[in-house]
C-alpha cells in the first residue's frame, strides 16, 4: 500500500491554497497508509537563502545552540524557526555543507530537507493529525508532495516516513519497494551521497540527488533510474520549479494524473483528486509504465 | 422507477445495501468522487447510472445488473462479473474485467494493464487501447480491442480469444495469431453490435468498427502439456546433470 499525492501549480491562481488542497488530497489517502505521513511544500523561495528542515529525535537537543554552532561552522548567519519536534534553519551559507555537518555532528537530529524552496515535515501517526500538527493547510507555495505510509521495508518510524530529500530541493515520495537498494546505497555512498536511514526509498531519492548534482536534468535522471532501480515503484518527484512522475515497467502500483490549465495533480487514487477545483474540466489519465512525465515552471 | 442517490449525502454502504434489497428499477448515483466498491454484488436486473468517476472494484461480482459509469474507473472494474452489463464512458485502469465469468464489459476509452486477466467467460470490448499483459492467463471469453494492445498480450492464455484492430506491441508466451474463421467473425460482429452505443447518444460512432479490420489471437497450446524435450531443463533447474 502507501498513498502518494502531488500537486503542482502551473499558475499563481491557487498559490494561497496549495496547503489546503494538499491536505484535502492527503486526507483521502489515509486508508492507504495509516502508519505515518509526511509532506513537502515548495514556495518561490529566495535564491540567496537555503532552508534546512530537521527533525529532533532527542529532546535534550538545544535547537538554539545547534543553530549557533551551525552558524560558526558555515561562517554565515543562521536563523531558527521551531515547529513542534521540527526546526527550520535558514542561512545564506552552503546548504549541502550544512546538511552534512548536522548529520556528522549532531546526534539525535535527522536532516529532513534542504534547499531554497522546500520545507518538509513528517511524523508517525494519523495522516490528518500530522497535517494539522505541522499546519499543512495554511501553507502557500508552488507545489507539494505528500505521502501516507504502510511500512513494508523498514520500521514505522518518523525517519522512515516519506518524503525523502537528500539533495537540494530534490524530493521523492514512493509507493512500492526496491530490491537493489542496499547495493545501490553503497555505490552512492562511494560517490559522495549520504543517507540517514535503512529505507529503500531514501536510496531512490539519493540516486536522483546524485544524478542532478552531477549534471543531469530531471528527465535524464529518471530515464537512467529505469535502468538502475530494480523493484516496484510509482514515484512523485519534486525539484526546484518542477515536478515529475515515474512508474516501473510492470506498473502494479497505482497512479492517476489530472491536469488543468492551472494545476497538475497526481495521486494513487482518483478520490484524492476528486475535490480539486475545476476537476470536472481536467484531463485525466493513467501515467504509462516506464515513461517519464515532467512539468516545470519558468524559473 | 428511478431513484436518485447523492453520495455526498448517503453513505456508500447504504447505497449498496439498497441495491442489494431491490429487485428492479433504475438508480442514478451522483457525486461518486472516486468511491471504491460502488455497486458491487448486484444480483438483480437493476440499472445503476453513475454520474462521475469511480474507484476500485466498481460493479464487482455483478450478476444480471446493468451498471453504467459516465466517467473513469479505478482498479478492478467489474471484477469477477458473472452476467449483466458494465459500461463506462471513460478509461479504466488496471485489471478491468479480471476473472469475469460472464456478461459484457464495455470500456469506451482505454483500459490499463492486465485487462481481462484470468477471464473465465466474460466478454470485454475496449474502444481504445489496452495496457501490457492484457488477457494474461485468460481462460474463456472474448477480449475485443478497437485500438492497440501493449506488450505481452495474451501471455499464458488458455481458450479465451483476443480480437485486436490496431497494433500489438508484442505477444506474450504461448500467444499466437490465429486464422479468423466465419464463426469468429460472427462472434466479433455480435460483440461489436452489443457494445455499440444506442442511437442518438453523443459519442455515437466512436465504438463502431468493421469486423474484417481485426486480427485474432489465441493460445498456441504449447504450455498445456509437459514436453519430453524439457526434461533436461527440469533436471538442470534441480541442479542435476
Word description of this protein:
The complex is a heterodimer of chains A (299) and B (241). Chain A is an alpha+beta fold and 299 residues long. Chain A contains seven helices and 16 strands. Chain A has helices spanning 18-28, 63-74, 95-105, 127-133, 181-190, 200-213, 218-228, and strands spanning 3-9, 36-42, 50-56, 78-83, 86-91, 109-115, 118-124, 143-149, 164-167, 170-178, 231-239, 242-247, 256-259, 263-267, 283-285, 293-296. Chain A has a seven-stranded antiparallel beta sheet with strand order 7-2-8-1-14-13-15, with helices on one face. In chain A, strand 9 and strand 10 (170-178) form a beta hairpin. In chain A, helix 5 (181-190) runs parallel beside helix 6 and helix 6 (200-213) crosses helix 7. Chain A is globular, with a radius of gyration of 18 Å. The mean pLDDT of chain A is 95. By secondary structure, chain B is of the alpha/beta class. Chain B has one domain (2-237): 3 Solenoid (Pectate Lyase C-like), CATH 2.160.20.60. Chain B is built from three helices and eleven strands. Chain B has helices spanning 12-21, 182-195, 231-237, and strands at 2-6, 26-30, 47-51, 66-70, 85-88, 104-107, 120-126, 140-145, 161-164, 175-178, 215-219. In chain B, strands 1-2-3-4-5-6-7-8-9-11-10 form an eleven-stranded mixed beta sheet, covered by helices on one side. In chain B, helix 1 links the parallel strand 1 (2-6) and strand 2 (26-30). The longest helix of chain B has 14 residues, at 182-195. The radius of gyration of chain B is 19 Å and the shape is globular. The model of chain B has no long low-confidence stretch (mean pLDDT 93). The A-B interface holds A 28, 250-252, 254, 256, 269-275, 284-286, 288-289 and B 33-36, 52-53, 55-56, 72, 74-75, 90-91, 93-94, 110, 112-113, 131-132.
Give the largest chain-chain interface (CB within 8 Å): A-B, 18 and 20 residues
Biggest sheet details of chain B:
11 strands, mixed
- The quaternary structure here is heterodimer
Compute the average pLDDT of chain B. 93
Distance between the termini of chain B: 73 Å
> At CATH's second level, what is the architecture of chain B?
3 Solenoid
- SSE order of chain A: EHEEHEEHEEHEEEHHHEEEEEE
Trace the largest sheet of chain B across and list its strands. 1-2-3-4-5-6-7-8-9-11-10
CATH domain topology of chain B: Pectate Lyase C-like
